[in-house]
Amino acid sequence: MNLKAKTAIITGGASGLGLATTKKFTEAGIKTIIVGRDESKLQAAAKAFGELCVYKVCDLSQIESIPNLVNEIIAEHGVPDILVNNAGINMKKPFAEVSNDDFQGIIQTNLTSVFVLSREIVKQMTIVGSGSIVNISSMASQYGIPYVIAYTATKSAIEGMTRAMATELSPQGIRVNCVAPGFIATDMSAKALDNDPARKQKVLSRTPMGKLGVPEDIADAVLFLASDAAKYITGVVLPVDGGNSVGF
């Protein structure tokens, strides 16, 4: 895949899908800068994955801090070849009980911060004339799932933004793609499913492969789209879901 000597930024790279992607990237020889809020988790990941993994502490919902974050990373590591917009939060709550602050908080973290970070990175990728951005969406963008209205809104927007970015940026050498995970066994999905057996059974019954995915399934897809193996792929939303989006 010609990944040696490449540099990547992974947001939310110290837990869940991001952690699995960080592991996959460092194993492939990619210098990986992970960004998140929890320094203890970031430190643990950096220690586990060795010298190819470094971290930056940043609350990406504080969007005014993002330009400085990007400047620091570029000063220390150069312009990244790859950006993985993985960080995100969820909230399971009945529609009528979601407050304005609830909704805006998830929009800020899951969508606005992705836009701001991508914009700042693209300014630099444009100068060098190359780059690969992989956004992380969700099956929630493919069909209606109750109790996750704000999360669904952000992930639907991420897919639209992926296509718009790809159309505008690909002529400048910057590919933009998206991975849409199905139901993957993570701490986040456990909170949504383990205390709701009927919901979990519905998920499994409409998944042709009959099981939840594992974080490594997503990491493999992200690595592929980020790499030169996907050099003629841009603007796609790739479901990694065991067939859930086409199941009956």
Automatic annotation (TrEMBL):
The keyword NADP appears for this protein: no
Species per Swiss-Prot/TrEMBL record: Mucilaginibacter jinjuensis
Keywords: Oxidoreductase
One Pfam family of this chain: adh_short_C2
Protein name in UniProt: SDR family NAD(P)-dependent oxidoreductase
UniProt key word Oxidoreductase: yes
Protein family according to the UniProt entry: Belongs to the short-chain dehydrogenases/reductases (SDR) family.
